[in-house]
Design goal:
Blueprint lengths: L1 H19 L7 H16 L3 H24 L4 H22 L4 H30 L25
């Protein structure tokens, strides 16, 4: 009886821990939600502006993704296409953001800042996964002193 109880208890906790681990795949929906909140905060979008802004922005990102697929092996051509897309969408963003060219430029800088932060977060997570506890802290290199130069402690 005691063995059966122990076995059932083991199976219960084993399945609990296995399911609690979750999936290691990146959730793109969550990343897009965070991007939306970040850009909304950075541009200080009103609800009315937000309604008009996000469909235009979604089309913009869709074109950027298509350009990435089209020029997957040619970085220079991809960057040229991105510049072309930005130039084409800048008047649309200015119109939605109140005819303010500075806010449209701030969109592009906020978008780049978000991508940089996301990339850094992914790098940090990979480093933590590989075993580094705190990847942000850089430990000083221990200075090696040759044995011939080492001083003996006083007696």
């Amino acid at each position: 009886m005691k063995k059966n109880f122990t076995f059932i208890l083991f199976l219960t906790f084993h399945s609990y821990f296995c399911f609690s681990q979750g999936s290691n795949t990146w959730d793109t929906g969550k990343a897009e939600t965070i991007r939306k909140a970040y850009i909304t905060r950075e541009l200080n979008l009103s609800p009315k502006e937000s309604e008009e802004f996000w469909p235009v922005y979604n089309n913009y990102t869709k074109e950027i993704k298509q350009a990435r697929q089209q020029y997957a092996n040619d970085e220079v051509a991809f960057e040229e296409k991105v510049v072309e897309i930005r130039k084409r969408y800048k008047p649309n963003f200015q119109k939605v953001l109140g005819d303010n060219p500075q806010r449209a430029n701030k969109l592009f800088t906020a978008d780049k800042a978000y991508r940089d932060k996301l990339r850094q977060e992914l790098v940090n997570r990979q480093q933590v996964k590989k075993g580094m506890q705190n990847p942000q802290v850089k430990r000083p290199i221990k200075r090696q002193i040759p044995k011939a130069i080492k001083r003996k402690p006083p007696r």
